[in-house]
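Readers of this paper often ask what the protein records in our data store actually look like. This encoding replaces a full spatial description with a residue-level series of whole-number codes. For reference, a complete record is included directly beneath this paragraph.
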Amino acid sequence: MSYFNFNSAAEQSSFDLIPKGSLVRVRTTIKPGGFDDPSLGWTGGYATRNPNTGSVYLNCGFVVLEGPYARRKLWSLIGLHSPKGEEWANMGRTFIKAILNSARGIHPDDNNPSAQNARCIKGFSELDGIEFLGRVDWEKDLNGKDKSVIKSAVTPDHKDYPALMGATRPVLTPAASHGQAQPLGQQPVPGRPSWAQ
């Protein structure tokens, strides 16, 4: 009698929810929905249109890159348009701006030309694959059960950003002269003499 030996198989992964408020470094994947509107710059088939509501969004997946939740997947929609009004699109724009600030090391208060330029994208393809620091939240799925989602990005003004995004990532700060990037970990420390900076 033949049989298959499963003693050496790996143990099951835990599917417990990632705790609310956890900060995780993630890589974004946009599931193409095939909806384009070139007049709005929506090309490449990245946007999805809900045929029932008429809302348009980016259907995003996020893979946790490191730490205790590495390889876990989370999902969220980024709003682009709603027939009900501007709120859905404005929330989406705010989220995308925060993602760019987080991914590109831009302090939210920095409005120098280089920081403003870094907050511009040529298309949604620049968001597909982008890595940033996200904050985990929970929402109900279609069956009324809680699921972990990413609804906000953590930017360089957060105290834990340098440790979680890497101390060598350049950060554009309002204090940086002419918008030049200053590497994290090499910023001036108050009270320390200039030779020891």
Summary: The longest helix spans residues 87-104. The two ends are 72 Å apart (CA to CA).
